[in-house]
Fold Diacylglycerol kinase.
Amino acid sequence: MQKKLLIILNPIAGKGISKEILHKILGFFRDRGYVVDFCETKRRDDARKTVECLSDDNCKIIVIGGDGTFNEVLNGLRNWKVKLGIIPTGTANVLAKELKIPFDITNACEVIAQENELQLDLGKNEKGYFALLGGVGLDAMVVKSLSSRRCGNISYLSYAIPIINSLLNYKYPRLSVEVDGKLIENNAGLVFVGNTKSYAGPIEVTSYAKVNDGAFDVCIVKMKNRLSILKYIWKAFIRTLPESKDVRYTTGKIVSVTSDLNVPYQIDGEFAGYVPTMFEIVPRTVPVFVPKSILN
């Protein structure tokens, strides 16, 4: 039986990769007997459209890009038996960090070639599936602002102006949060619904989350003003946010968030819409290649 591989490359993820490195990746898998197809995305949704018609269980998909490219692939898949590999080249690479996937290109290829699988939980809402985290409030406002001005590659510096604008203009709404049908908070200012520990860079907001435990970790912040948000940002940087005063932390399978105001939300770092919204966990849905050490 032929070993089939579809490689999807986002050339503007992070700093991008050179043609030399791309040829090295293609050669790595062809030398190991794979029949390799290759797709380079040119615009939003190309990755999703590419995988929509893929029905062959024996074909594996490698995503060369960041978390956004991986999210597009998730939302294009119609066959959950297809196995996914990651070669991280994005800005944050949250999922790759969570799964201990090497950032060295050759080592990342070796992880895929060894074919050790982890069954990854996914989140789901009316906008689609996500692997990392949903955020309601200020962080979604930042993401929305960045999305409206993005042109080409982004770096952490790209977030500076959207963060400043959002801090100055955010209205600190009251959010109501239900977890598994129970009202947990009716005066939240910020809500994170996480499948992963990491948010971006060194920041953690759902610090006890596991990617295959069948539940979300939910971090609810009673944010009242600019001074309080700066304090909570610092707590997230030093990874102590869940233990902070005025923060509620819980787990659950279904999380609903509502408000009287038009409050934005994001999933996997992409603006997705406005509340009300509901997040639902879909346990152990998609197989992803990971280092053997993470399975022990």
